[in-house]
Each structure stands twice: as structure tokens, then as C-alpha cells.
Design goal:
Chain B: It comes from Leeuwenhoekiella marinoflava. Chain B: Keywords: Electron transport, Transport. Chain B: Belongs to the ETF beta-subunit/FixA family. The complex is a heterodimer. By secondary structure, chain A is an alpha/beta fold. Chain A is built from 9 helices and 17 strands. Chain B has a single domain, classed as HUPs (Rossmann fold, 3-Layer(aba) Sandwich). Chain B is built from 6 helices and 15 strands. In chain B, 50% of the residues are buried. Classes of the chains: A alpha/beta, B alpha/beta. Strand 9 of chain A pairs antiparallel with strand 14 of chain B. The complex binds flavin-adenine dinucleotide (FAD).
């Protein structure tokens, strides 16, 4: 009956989202009077999961799983869910979790709700709140199947400590060649750079910055704040910045604590994708720019004057607050 | 090579989102519907396979008659024929299950779907479909080449990308990158005329079950006024971010 949660790690270390999904699973387990079991794959050290409410850690070490393969990971989760008799499985919204979730759903005959933002509203019927229409609305969805899969939106639940002593158990699911039908040839990952998916703060630039040569100050601000850099769609379409930085309805979603938009007008498609961010700041010369209606804080001013000054102030602030 | 492109019929990105019937139904009043943007990137990539590698391209949608103009548009862009499974799309599983019947029957080498549709953002149809028909599956696909029986794809991952190979049949969840924005095609007069004569086959559904139910909708609470800070008083912004919003 235990709620099963997949706690993702990278190079053996848990991501913050792993603690968030455990916190959330703890919440559901408390509602249902049951326990939380976390499945880890090739994680080094797992005691930290107890801090956020895991009762048990099922630990899988297998070199064949060093690279993510959706079918093999889904199969491991399926076998863990069956072993634990889990009725609820909680996943994050990482690219890998979103990749394996539908595969898992078919394997377990489970209904799957993605982009869930809160604990279930009721247990029977089992109803969750999720975002829809790319953050322009919420949708209350009932999962009707016996086994249920929840994909939790990043940064929607937060971390909640519960201080459990998690027991540990190793786990060796049987994996066949069919689970490795996708061959990973190479992985090209930026190092030493915060990614939009993991970032607490995102600094984003738009067409108002005039050209790629002006991104130095954006990168500097991101450096000072430990933030990821992002951009509006036309900026990536013109090749000023890579597509991977394109955020919005047709790009990446952003759900950071702080989103700073510089020289971005705030078109509906842009706002849809970034609206889940908690605090939004806009810097724009045009007081009529629609972003001012979506932002919490705004500066009407020229980015080329404001941003370098703001960077200096932020440096001072960081120096005296660290 | 036989290609099937899954087309979701969605509100235009500029649509105002409202609900009717006690917030249980999406209000289509005055809403323009378009090909789901992620699907359009995939369709355009399919056109490349058609023109460069002689592929045939069918398109498919699960939906009522109201989706036909969207299918005609995809035909005008260049798809060869269309299939509409005549039933309301109720949840991701039901749609995947309906698609799987046609996908199996048609023996497609490649099935191109979008990473997610921009209306319900479920992000599950491609993966479920692949699993139901036992095909390989690559999600968030930003590049795709096919040679013989093998596909080489690039998948976007958090903070980078990954190059993979897979045997056909393959299902992808595609997105921008499969082709560039500037590669997207606007149907011309000739395409529109030709599309009228292309087959649009209406199939009756299998009657697949649903696993989830969209019970109701709600709009986000209205936003408070923006706090304006003078460009000459940036310390105030830092103070607000630190002490009020507590985000730095
Ligand atoms: C189907 C579809 C999907 C789309 N999806 C997305 C999406 O996912 N993401 C996205 O971003 N867009 C998307 N768009 C595009 C969207 O409609 C806008 O065109 C785009 O967001 C505008 O980008 P921008 O704000 O950088 O540029 P603009 O709208 O040109 O705005 C530039 C802003 O910079 C300001 N500015 C100029 N100079 C300065 C200066 N010196 N200092 C400060 N400010 C300055 C201007 O006042 C202006 O507000 C989509 C469009 C369509 C049709």
C-alpha cells in the first residue's frame, strides 16, 4: 500500500526535486494512513530521504542504468510498485520523469495526471488539481483507476521536513534487453551552469536587448544570482541564443522562485509559460508593455542603463549577505 | 517509409481561456483552433521525409467533425491523407488507445506526435501509444533522421541533449528543433485546393475506456498591481526581493 516515489539523482546526488516529491508523497501517505517508499537508482547516500518523510528506501544499483533509459527505469518502477503493493506513485516533472511516466502508466494500468500542483483534494474520488492551458487555468482531474500516477509540478509543493528514520533495502529488478531498445550514443550536458529546469532564479532576455552581443550583462546577472539564463521565442528563432533557452508556451515552462524579464514585452504565449514562477520582475522601457500586468515588481527604464547598475548593487548585496 | 502524424486540434495560442457549464467545459466561443504547435513541427519534419526520402504521410486525429478544418490545413501543408476517429477526446489514455488500433493496422514505420498539446498539457499520448503498440519511443525529440531500419534522434534533456538510436517502428514526442520556426509552411492556394480532394477517412472508435476525468476548471486568481521601482532607486528593488518576496 506504501506510496512509491521515484527520487532522481544525478551522478549519485539527489536533486532538490527528489526532496520535493518525497515531501509530497509524505503528505499523501498521511492522508491515506500509509507509508512512503522511495526508489533510488544509483544514488550514493540515501539517508537524507528520511528527513523529508521516507519510511523506506529501496535502493537499486546497476551499471546498466548509469544512463537513463525510459523503458528500463519504468520497468524498475513497475516492479517496485508491485512489490510494495503501491496504489499511488509520485514522480517529478523532470524531462526523464515525463518521459517514463506514460510508459509506466500503461505497464501498471494506472491513470496518470501530470503537472499536479497540490495534494489530492479528496481520496475517493481521487481528485487532484493540475495546471492546464499552459498555466492559463487549473483543472481538477479525477483519477479513476486503482493505481494512480502523479507527476508533480516543480516548485509547487516545496520541501517539508518530516524526520523519519528510513530503513534501507536493496532491490534487483529483472531487466531484459527489450528495456534497452533505445541506445544512448552520447550525452551533451552543460557543466557548471544552472539549468532552467533546476533553477531557483531565471534571468531572461528578449528582443529589447537588440542583439546577441548584448547578453554579457544578462549572463553576469545570472552568475551573481546563481541563476539560469533564458530568452523569448524570437530571440532563439533569430539564433541570438540557443533553442534550449526558449521559454514560454511553445518552449520550456519556468516555475522558478524568481523570474527576471529584461526587454521582453510579455506576449500571452510568453507569459503562459513562465506564469508558474512565484515572483516576477520586469525591466522594460515601455510602460504599456503587457508584462507590467503580470509582474510583481517593475522598472520602467532602459535595460542598457538599469542592468549594469543593478548588477553592481546585486554584487554588493551578495557580498554582504553571504 | 510510412509515417503517421498525430494532430491535436487546439485553441490558438492567443485565445482567451474561459469555461462554461459551471466551469466544467472549455468555452469554444470565439476561439480559433489550430494545429497544436508541437505537432506542426513534427508535420513539417514529415514533409521533409516525404520530399527527400519518398515517405508517405498520413495524419490522424481523435475528435469530432469540428476538427476537420484543422486536418484539412495539415493536408494543405502536404500530408497525403487524413484519418479522423470519430469520438470526443476525453483523456490521454483513451486517445492513445484509439490511435493504437489504427497505428497497428497501418504498419507505420514512424509515428510523429507532439511532446504535449497546449490545451490539456497531458504529455502522455505519445509514450502510451508507443507502449501499447510495442514501438520504440523518444520523447522531447528535437532532431530526427532515418536510415533503413534505424532512426537517430536527439532528445532534449534537462540542461542539455542526448543522441540516441532506435529501431523502427518508432514513436516520437516532438517539439521545436525538429525543424526551425522559419521552416514552418503556410498553405498556399494550390495546397488548399488539393487538400479538398485528398482522402479524409472517418473511422468509428473502438470505444476505449478513460482512466481520468477532467471534473472542472478554474482560472488563476487575478494578479495584484505591479509595484514600480524607480531606476534611480535600485536598492529598493533589492530590498523588496530580499525582505518582501524573500527570493534572494
Ligand atoms: C504559436 C505561437 C507560439 C509562441 N510561443 C512563444 C513562446 O513560447 N515564448 C515566447 O517568448 N514567445 C512566443 N511567441 C511569440 C510571442 O507572441 C511574442 O512575439 C514574443 O514573446 C515577443 O518576444 P519579445 O518580448 O522578446 O519581443 P518584443 O515583443 O519585440 O518585445 C521587446 C520588448 O523589449 C522592450 N525594449 C526595447 N528596448 C529596450 C531597452 N533598451 N530596455 C528595456 N526594454 C526594451 C520593448 O519595449 C518591448 O516590450 C509565440 C507566438 C506564436 C504565434
Amino acid at each position: 500500500m506504501s506510496v512509491l516515489v521515484f527520487t532522481e539523482s544525478e551522478e549519485g546526488k539527489f536533486k532538490k526535486t527528489a526532496y520535493e516529491v518525497v515531501s509530497y508523497a509524505r503528505g499523501i501517505a498521511d492522508m491515506m494512513n500509509t507509508t512512503v517508499t522511495a526508489l533510488t537508482i544509483n544514488a550514493d547516500e540515501t539517508s537524507s530521504l528520511g528527513t523529508y518523510g521516507a519510511d523506506k528506501v529501496v535502493h537499486l544499483k546497476n551499471d546498466k542504468l548509469a544512463k537513463f533509459t525510459a523503458n528500463a527505469y519504468a520497468s524498475a518502477l513497475t516492479q517496485a510498485a508491485q512489490k510494495e503493493g503501491s496504489k499511488v506513485i509520485v514522480l517529478s516533472s523532470s524531462a526523464n520523469a515525463k518521459y517514463l511516466a506514460p510508459i509506466l502508466a500503461v505497464d501498471l494500468n494506472a491513470g496518470y495526471a501530470s503537472n499536479v500542483v497540490a495534494l489530492p483534494e479528496s481520496e475517493s474520488p481521487f481528485t487532484v488539481k493540475r495546471t492546464a492551458f499552459t498555466n492559463k487555468a487549473f483543472n481538477h482531474t479525477e483519477i479513476k483507476t486503482d493505481v494512480k500516477i502523479i507527476g508533480l509540478s516543480k516548485n509547487s509543493f516545496g520541501l517539508k521536513e518530516a524526520q523519519k528514520e528510513a530503513s534501507e533495502e536493496s532491490f534487483e529488478p529483472s531487466l531484459d534487453d527489450v528495456h534497452f531498445n533505445i541506445d544512448v550514443q552520447s550525452v551533451d550536458k552543460v557543466k557548471d551552469k544552472v539549468t532552467i529546469a533546476d533553477a531557483e532564479i531565471v534571468v531572461s532576455g528578449g528582443r529589447g536587448l537588440k542583439g546577441p552581443e548584448n547578453w554579457g550583462m544578462i549572463e553576469e546577472m545570472a552568475d551573481i544570482l546563481g541563476a539560469a539564463t533564458a530568452c523569448s521565442k524570437p530571440v532563439s528563432d533569430m539564433g541570438w541564443r540557443p533553442h534550449s533557452e526558449h521559454v514560454g508556451q511553445t518552449g520550456k515552462p519556468v516555475a522558478s522562485n524568481l523570474y527576471i524579464a529584461i526587454g521582453i514585452s510579455g506576449a500571452i504565449q510568453h507569459l503562459a509559460g513562465i506564469n508558474a514562477s512565484k515572483t516576477k520582475v520586469v525591466i522594460n522601457t515601455d510602460p504599456e508593455a503587457p508584462f507590467f500586468k503580470a509582474a510583481d515588481y517593475g522598472i520602467i527604464g532602459d535595460a542598457f542603463e538599469v542592468v549594469p547598475k543593478l548588477n553592481e548593487k546585486l554584487k554588493e548585496f551578495k557580498a554582504s549577505n553571504s | 517509409m510510412k509515417i503517421l502524424v498525430c494532430i491535436s486540434h487546439v485553441p490558438d495560442t492567443t485565445s482567451k481561456i474561459n469555461f462554461t457549464d459551471n466551469d466544467t467545459k472549455f468555452d469554444t466561443n470565439g476561439v480559433q483552433f489550430v494545429i497544436n504547435p508541437n505537432d506542426e513541427f513534427g508535420l513539417t519534419r514529415a514533409m521533409w521525409f516525404k520530399e527527400k526520402q519518398g515517405a508517405t504521410v498520413d495524419i490522424i486525429n481523435v475528435g469530432g467533425p469540428e476538427t476537420e478544418p484543422t486536418l484539412r490545413k495539415a493536408l494543405a501543408i502536404g500530408a497525403d491523407s487524413a484519418i479522423r476517429i470519430n469520438t470526443e477526446a476525453l483523456d490521454g489514455f483513451q486517445v492513445a488507445k484509439e490511435l493504437s488500433a489504427v497505428a497497428k493496422e497501418g504498419n507505420y514505420d514512424l509515428i510523429i506526435a507532439g511532446r504535449e498539446s497546449i490545451d490539456y498539457n497531458g504529455g502522455m499520448v505519445p509514450g502510451m501509444l508507443a507502449n501499447l503498440i510495442g514501438a520504440s519511443f523518444v520523447n522531447t525529440c528535437i532532431s530526427l533522421e532515418v536510415e533503413g531500419e534505424t532512426a537517430t534522434a536527439i532528445r532534449e534533456i534537462d540542461g542539455g541533449k542526448e543522441t540516441v538510436t532506435a529501431k523502427l517502428p518508432l514513436v516520437i514526442g516532438g517539439q521545436k528543433g525538429l525543424v526551425e520556426e522559419s521552416d514552418l509552411r503556410i498553405p498556399n492556394m494550390r495546397g488548399i485546393m488539393m487538400a479538398r480532394k485528398k482522402p479524409l477517412d472517418v473511422k468509428e472508435p473502438q470505444g476505449a475506456d478513460t482512466e481520468t476525468k477532467a471534473v472542472s476548471f478554474e482560472k488563476p486568481a487575478p494578479k495584484g498591481e505591479v509595484k514600480l521601482v524607480s531606476p534611480d532607486n535600485l536598492d529598493e528593488l533589492i530590498d523588496l526581493l530580499h525582505n518582501e518576496a524573500k527570493v534572494i
